[in-house]
Write a structure and sequence with these properties.
The chain is α+β, with helices and mostly antiparallel strands. The strands form eight sheets. Strands 12, 13, 17, 18, 19, 20, 21, 22, 23 and 24 form a ten-stranded mixed beta sheet that branches. A hairpin with a 6-residue loop joins strand 19 and strand 20. About 45% of the residues are buried.
Length: about 650
């Protein structure tokens, strides 16, 4: 669906592209492109509104972008050299831009409708804001805030809509911009970053909810109740006969502090583990990590970190992995680290279930960040490293006390040697991070840690806890740091980008078949990569096909919350439409070693004994796969 959406918005324009746009056509465009229109409005609106109000205002502007009445016809400006093929979308985009730019203009006299808080949609008792991204998204947000409204609109039209300069001037002029050339010149001062503009940081349809100021709300509620009670008393005194009135009036109960919550905010009660506890502990998990870093004695910093975790303010960027509770700690958490990382002071905390990372700028400016991630049940390799910070395409880790050596290696080059990394007080030197990296995938740096029990690989997928990489058959998978594991992962490393910011705990690569190819084309490998999550659901299983001579594998099937390739169902069946060197098209299907028969239906009808199926097919044909295992169990093709 996404590729269709892009194709429709960027279809070539014809000479008949100008003309009336009816309400029905506009409604259809609004339904189809609503998330895109809301994102445009959110990016153009002034950041000074605050993220919560920008979200609601962006939705309001998109919803008010329809023509005023049924039966009326509206015209849109012609795109002389643009690529707009959807007239309804172009019309709505122009109205959204006009309203967002109007909201960004300084007030002169009475405010316009777009400059007022939206009446609809309305949310009571909650603040809504998009998920926070990494350092790159935060830097782009700060650069956009320094631009004028028209310059932000020009930047969005260029980076998100991929319009030419001439088309941008035309659209800005139609939206009421007085100096489109100047706005475009200001926007050209920033590098185009379409991947960041499309990230969850700027998606007002993918939201997180936080409560408003609970203490202030409690105080206002008490005041309202007291005023209502006083009014009732006055009314009763007027109505009562002379000589007295009934029993005492009701009063709001006195506020009673929660001792556990108060203790959780006291930096003096933070749990600090001895540096040698891990040596005699029965478990190797986060609970035996000592407190490290040069700022572990900075009481004021620790107090701010605890307070922000308990009740983050409007200016705090809050992010959490899927399925992670965002509330404050139930009691005093454990201090893991406090120190400076790049240009931020960072505090790492652990409450037994979650890792919390608090970061504030060293220069004291606004823009504190709070990141939360589940870590319940983490032990061994899964509890060996945490992300301290990311900047300039690099990442730094805080390692477990049992880690002796750290190194960086390219997962796509199994024969290349690992590059050693220095470790200072548990903190690694910076290494390249593949998380949120735009552009083509030409390498995939991973972290290799070595301890008393051996070495393991982890990769940064944009979250606090790096994902643990393994290789082998389900129920018997081992570390991917060995020669066999490195060779197994090399062609499929880039597929890890499909699991960014998904709460992934570990990813296993299982080479389940090597299939001889027809027409004397050699043999192809079939691999299933399965990502387990911290929350349990949302697991992803990918069947990948690697023909001979190819540098990378291709994802040919995906199953979400599927049991295939996992410990509960260590079996898989997948297929692909493949063209041989002789120019013939084939349906290829393969299962694991326990597959007895394979049947294909739909666009290709074929059946065969054993774990492989090869059948001639037509280009573009689609087939449904079914199979049976040697014990008679029926399985379906991964999808």
């Amino acid at each position: 669906m996404q590729s269709q959406d892009v194709a429709q918005r960027h279809a070539p324009a014809s000479a008949d592209d100008t003309g009336p746009v009816g309400l029905e056509q506009a409604e259809a465009a609004l339904v189809e492109h609503y998330p895109r229109l809301v994102r445009i409005a959110y990016l153009v609106l002034p950041p000074g509104l605050g993220r919560s109000r920008r979200v609601l205002t962006a939705h309001a502007l998109a919803q008010r972008s329809l023509p005023p009445g049924r039966g009326q016809q509206c015209t849109i400006p012609a795109q002389t050299s643009g690529r707009e093929g959807d007239l309804g979308y172009a019309f709505l985009r122009e109205r959204v831009l006009r309203a967002a730019l109007e909201a960004a203009r300084p007030r002169k006299g009475l405010p316009r409708l777009s400059q007022l808080p939206p009446l609809l949609p309305q949310v009571w008792g909650l603040k809504l804001f998009p998920r926070s991204g990494g350092a790159d998204e935060l830097a782009l947000d700060q650069r956009l805030s320094a631009l004028s409204g028209p310059a932000r609109a020009a930047y969005v039209l260029r980076g998100l809509e991929e319009l030419s300069d001439a088309d941008i001037r035309t659209v800005l002029t139609a939206a009421g911009v007085d100096d489109p050339g100047g706005a475009l010149a200001d926007a050209n001062g920033l590098p185009t970053q379409p991947a960041l503009l499309s990230s969850p940081e700027f998606d007002p349809c993918l939201l997180q909810a936080r409560p408003t100021d609970l203490m202030r709300r409690r105080q206002h509620t008490k005041a309202a109740l007291a005023a209502a009670a006083a009014l009732a008393v006055c009314g009763a005194l007027v109505a009562l006969p002379r000589g007295g009135w009934g029993p005492d009036g009701a009063a709001a109960p006195a506020y009673a502090g929660n001792p556990a919550a108060e203790a959780a905010l006291d930096p003096g009660r933070l749990i600090r583990v001895s540096p040698i506890t891990w040596e005699s502990a029965a478990r190797s998990d986060f609970s035996v990590w000592p407190a490290r870093g040069p700022l572990t004695g900075d009481t004021a910093l620790l107090r701010r970190a605890l307070a922000v975790w308990a009740r983050p303010g409007e200016t705090v960027h809050v992010s959490a992995t899927p399925g992670t509770d965002t509330g404050g700690p139930a009691g005093p958490p454990q201090l893991l680290y406090a120190g400076q990382v790049d240009n931020a002071r960072v505090v790492m905390l652990y409450d037994g279930l979650r890792i919390a990372r608090y970061a504030e700028p060293v220069d004291g400016t606004q823009g504190a960040a709070l990141d939360l991630a589940r870590a319940d049940g983490a032990t061994g390799a899964e509890a060996s490293a945490l992300v301290l910070g990311r900047s300039d395409g690099n990442v730094q880790y805080l390692t477990a006390p049992w880690v002796k050596k750290a190194a960086s290696r390219d997962l796509m080059k199994p024969e290349a040697a690992a590059t050693p990394l220095t470790i200072s007080n548990g903190v690694t030197a910076p290494l390249a991070s593949p998380a949120l990296r735009p552009g083509n995938c030409t390498s995939w740096p991973v972290l290799q840690l070595t301890g008393a029990t051996g070495s393991q690989l982890s990769t940064d997928l944009g979250e606090l806890v790096p994902a643990h990489l393994t290789a082998g058959r389900p129920r018997a998978a081992g570390e991917a740091s060995g020669a066999a594991g490195l060779r197994a992962w090399a062609p499929y490393a880039c597929s890890l980008s499909l699991e960014r910011s998904a709460g992934v705990r570990s990813v296993n690569a299982w080479t389940f078949a090597g299939q001889p190819l027809p027409d004397g084309s050699g043999a192809a490998d079939w691999v299933c990569t399965r990502a387990e999550t911290w929350r349990g659901d949302g697991t992803g299983a990918f069947a990948q096909f690697h023909p001979p001579g190819g540098r990378v594998g291709a994802v040919v099937a995906k199953g979400t919350d599927a049991r295939s390739c996992g410990p509960r169902a260590p079996h898989v069946l997948a297929g692909v439409l493949w063209k041989s060197a002789a120019g013939h098209w084939y349906l290829l299907a393969a299962g694991d070693k326990d597959t007895a028969t394979i049947q294909a239906g739909g666009g290709v009808s074929a059946a065969g004994q054993g774990r492989f199926l090869v059948a001639r097919a037509k280009q573009g044909a689609r087939a449904d796969l079914k199979g049976t295992l040697v014990d008679g169990t029926e399985i379906s093709g991964l999808r």
